[in-house]
Amino acid sequence: PFPTQKIFLEELPNFDLLVFDNFASQPYLPSSYLDKIEEFVRRGGGFWMLGGPLSYLGGRYQQSPIAPVLPVELPQTLPAGGVFREWPFQPSLTPAGRNHPFFQGLADRGGEPPPLRGYNVTGPARPGAVVLAEVPLGGGRSQPLIVLGRYGSGRVLSVLSDSLWDWAFAEAGRGKGNRAYLAFVRQAVRWRT
Fold it and tell me: Which residues pair with 47 in a beta bridge?
């Protein structure tokens, strides 16, 4: 069996970064483990939540100790149309995203990163969070896509899509290789420290 008790109750302080990738904690992690994750981040640990149908609202994190850790708000009521929109879109970098090391090489000068498929529906970014990329919704509206935040002494990255890895394949398909995607991941890990 997977040693969840040992990891979350004993070993978690030894980690630098914890990543949830399209993962619903219920029924795998009891609330006491999520309390430990909240404490881990508050004390300086890094936490990434990557999107997908089982993340954010789809994983019912709005009712968990993880909700205040995230740099995006999670509404208590589920949005009409579902918690995950499964269609292609062109991410839009914010002014903060255009200047951020995460995106060096992913967007041409003044351009946008490659398209993605599907995004999680959430509320707005929390006060103090930095939105690096958005999902344009039309009519001048947008949805956060990549958001950086702090919680206590820790740093948190929210990626509200489960297709970020497409950036590696899209760029490789254009003959540019996957260096820009790998640079994004490396910069994100460095930012955590």
Answer: 18, 156
Query: What distance in Å separates the CA atoms of residue 94 and residue 100, rounded to the nearest whole number?
Result: 10
Query: Counting Cβ atoms within 10 Å, is residue 127 exposed (0-12), middle (13-18) or buried (19+)?
Result: exposed
pLDDT tens, residue by residue, 125-139: 999 999 999 999 989
Of 7-21, 22-36, 97-111, 126-140, the poorest mean pLDDT is in 97-111
Residue 149 and residue 126 in contact, taking contact as beta carbons nearer than 8 Å: yes
DSSP-assigned states of every residue in the chain: ---HHHIIIIIGGG-SEEEEES---TTTS-HHHHHHHHHHHHTT-EEEEE-STTSGGGGTGGGSTTGGGSSB---SSPPTT-SEEEEEE--EE-HHHHTSGGGTTTS-TT--PPPEEEEE---PBPTT-EEEEEEEEETTEEEEEEEEEEETTEEEEEE--S-TTHHHHHHHHTTS-SHHHHHHHHHHHHHH-
Token output for 19: 């990543």
Exposure string for 45-77, b = 16+ CB within 10 A, e = fewer: bbbbbbbbbbbbbbbbbbebbbbebbbbbbeee
The Cα–Cα gap between 173 and 193 comes to 32
